[in-house]
Design goal:
The chain has 8 helices and 12 strands. With 310 residues, it is α/β, with parallel strands linked by helices. It folds into 2 domains: 137 residues, Alpha-Beta Plaits (2-Layer Sandwich); 154 residues, Rossmann fold. 27% of the residues are buried.
Length: 310
């Protein structure tokens, strides 16, 4: 929650999504009812503190927020350069929330002194379309929580799965590895549109017959076939270059595919927060891993032995 973009000016104009976690992930802010979060009195106070930010910082407009049982998301727009760092704005908001928390719960030795964990997470909007996406994400948070609670086994990160001598972190449905037929999606960047269409038809037909598709998702053709497979409700095992953040949740179509048990994400390398281009050696390694996973001699996975889970 303390990571910051070192090259970004947090005094400057911009749109940010701020995320705060309740200390210890305690569900103090609300409870889930169906696909709606009902705020507690403390949750209502947190929302009220958020709405007061423009009174202290008139350069800021508030765009969206959601109070979840154990965390908070807020979307704000800094319209012009501020005299104070965004971190000071968030700090002031947290102080107000902690005052409300202490007033309601008192100060006892067994209670944390602050409502929220140290630091905060920010997401900086940098491209067209992100604002609408984050509006939808924030509004959809209660439904996503309801889905995760209904299907917890498909939203669990597994620290280590060993396949063909390679260790992976995994997220999703590990039982897809036990499908008897696993087919690799492999497309050159130079593949013609006609050849791509033929390959896509061949793989989707096999998936309809029970095969699970395995993709390194490197070339545009591989990504296209993987997207088409998910859109068609087909199972997919996708290899990803980056690992999973501690609070990772699958985005967009990946979320719905996880909810129905149709997706397994495998990450052979640790998570990193910085943006970096995938290297040629990594591409070659991912292609080989996909081939190994699809090899007939690769043993079926004993899912009962998967430990630890987080």
């Amino acid at each position: 929650m303390r990571f910051r973009c070192l090259c970004h000016d947090y005094f400057e104009r911009g749109i940010y999504m701020i995320t705060l976690e309740v200390e210890g992930r305690r569900p103090l802010l609300g409870s889930l009812s169906g696909e709606t979060v009902i705020p507690t009195p403390l949750g209502e106070e947190v929302a009220a503190c958020w709405k007061k930010i423009p009174f202290f910082h008139p350069e800021i407009s508030l765009l969206e927020h959601i109070v979840m049982p154990d965390h908070f998301h807020g979307l704000l727009f800094i319209r012009r350069r501020m005299a104070r760092h965004l971190g000071e704005v968030v700090r002031g908001f947290k102080v107000g929330c902690t005052k409300a928390y202490r007033a309601m719960y008192g100060a006892t030795p067994d209670m944390p002194t602050a409502l929220f964990s140290p630091g905060y997470h920010d997401r900086i909007l940098t491209s067209k379309g992100q604002l609408a996406t984050l509006h939808r994400y924030i509004r959809d948070n209660p439904r996503r929580l309801a889905v995760r609670r209904a299907h917890p086994d498909y939203f669990t990160r597994i620290n280590s799965i060993c396949l063909a001598g390679q260790s992976f972190a995994a997220y999703g449905n590990p039982f897809l590895l036990n499908r008897p037929e696993r087919l690799r999606i492999q497309c050159s960047r130079r593949i013609t549109p006609d050849d791509l269409n033929r390959e896509e038809s061949r793989l989707l037909q096999a998936a309809e017959g029970g095969a699970v598709l395995v993709s390194p998702c490197i070339s545009p053709g591989e990504k296209q076939i993987a997207r088409t497979a998910l859109d068609a409700g087909m199972p997919l095992i996708a290899l990803v270059e980056n690992g999973f953040a501690p609070r990772y949740k699958p985005p967009g179509k990946y979320f719905d595919a996880c909810a129905s048990g149709r997706l397994l994400l495998l990450a052979p390398w640790p998570y990193h927060a910085d943006r970096r281009a995938i290297t040629r050696l990594q591409c070659l390694a991912l292609n080989q891993m996909a081939a190994d996973i699809c090899a007939p001699e690769t043993a079926a996975l004993d899912c009962s032995a998967l430990q630890p889970r987080v």
